Task: inverse folding
């Protein structure tokens, strides 16, 4: 975007050699309402650049960004693949941030298939793939080839999203209470949802460590959902780069009284369209508002199209049938975490069952989750 003229008496503009129309210069330099209207069409990355033009524009940018508070997602699949030098998700994220993302992300959750996102000599275990979707499009279960998504959370009033990461230390397997409290997992009456993932769980002792971490907060009235994945690629890891053989637990905690959430478990008996839809009806019965809500699907790598007698996209299509406007994200992994549980409104927490730790960990299942982030203002 080309800067036109100065910014009135607000300072910061360079008027030398300007050939702009004087009236346009006056409008863009003095009328905040017009400037703000124009800036609403720019993506956040461009807004951050033009905020340096002058004080007026800087204040307008601040107000515009304050109105852009909806969760945004970027997804990439087979149609975006084909460039050997980089994963399709990396390229698509770079393009979308430059052109179409209007929020200022505070937290980003990104997932991709491991065999192409990580170099072949570092890859371990099964391929991880991503059911992706949007509020308008059919979500896709991608079992072969490049795929991935990035879920971008802005700062949301009344809601706190905190990442956590615990690396297994063979010399000290004890987690101190203050470590859990610092990331909102303990001593937090507003904790509602925990997305939790164990990585490199094929390593000796990794699964036990995952269960040990989760046992600290699994008996609380909160939603737990997640699974076991191949590897972690963390841009905020305390250790750079993360050891390829490291194991640990990573995730996000969601706190805030406005949050409502529910999960259902699709066990091994759920093996056709009819039983899948029955499970979605249980999720629907939780009465979670669908506006400003995101869906998650954490499935066993063995529950793809072969599990449903060579029919693909069964679980994602069933989700779309009952929740047509809710975007769906997730992966096929090596183990699932969750159960049937509801955390819903009026500050009342409901737990479907008294769940033992052992009943939270599954194989050949799917966990479906809804997270409502409160009514948009």
Result:
């Amino acid at each position: 975007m080309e800067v036109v003229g100065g910014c009135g008496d607000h300072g910061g503009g360079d008027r030398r050699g300007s050939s702009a129309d004087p009236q346009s210069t006056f409008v863009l330099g003095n009328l905040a309402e017009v400037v703000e209207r124009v800036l609403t069409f720019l993506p956040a990355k461009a807004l951050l650049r033009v905020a340096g033009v002058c004080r007026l524009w800087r204040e307008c940018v601040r107000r515009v960004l304050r109105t852009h508070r909806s969760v945004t997602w970027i997804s990439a699949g087979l149609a975006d693949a084909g460039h050997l030098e980089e994963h399709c998700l990396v390229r698509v994220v770079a393009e979308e941030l430059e052109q179409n993302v209007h929020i200022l992300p505070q937290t980003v959750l990104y997932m991709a298939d491991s065999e192409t996102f990580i170099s072949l000599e570092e890859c371990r275990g099964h391929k991880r793939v991503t059911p992706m979707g949007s509020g308008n499009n059919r979500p896709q279960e991608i079992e072969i080839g490049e795929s991935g998504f990035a879920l971008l959370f802005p700062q949301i009033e009344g809601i706190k999203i905190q990442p956590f990461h615990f690396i297994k230390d063979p010399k000290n397997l004890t987690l101190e209470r203050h470590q859990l409290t610092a990331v909102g997992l303990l001593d937090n009456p507003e904790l509602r949802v925990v997305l939790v993932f164990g990585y490199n769980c094929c390593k000796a002792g990794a699964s036990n460590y995952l269960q040990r971490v989760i046992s600290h907060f699994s008996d609380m009235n909160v939603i737990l959902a997640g699974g076991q994945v191949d590897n972690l690629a963390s841009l905020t890891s305390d250790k750079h780069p993360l050891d390829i053989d490291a194991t640990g637990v990573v995730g996000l905690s969601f706190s805030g009284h406005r949050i409502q959430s529910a999960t259902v478990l699709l066990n091994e008996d759920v093996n056709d369209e009819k039983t899948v839809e029955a499970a979605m009806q249980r999720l629907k019965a939780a009465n979670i508002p669908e506006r400003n809500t995101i869906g998650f699907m954490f499935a066993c790598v063995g529950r793809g199209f072969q599990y449903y007698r060579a029919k693909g996209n069964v679980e994602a299509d069933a989700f779309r049938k009952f929740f047509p406007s809710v975007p769906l994200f997730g992966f096929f992994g090596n183990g699932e975490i969750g159960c049937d549980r509801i955390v819903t409104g009026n500050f009342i927490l409901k737990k479907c069952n008294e769940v033992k730790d052992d009943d939270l960990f599954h194989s050949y299942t799917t966990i479906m989750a809804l997270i409502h982030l409160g009514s948009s203002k």
About this structure: Residues 42 and 102 are 7 Å apart (CA to CA).
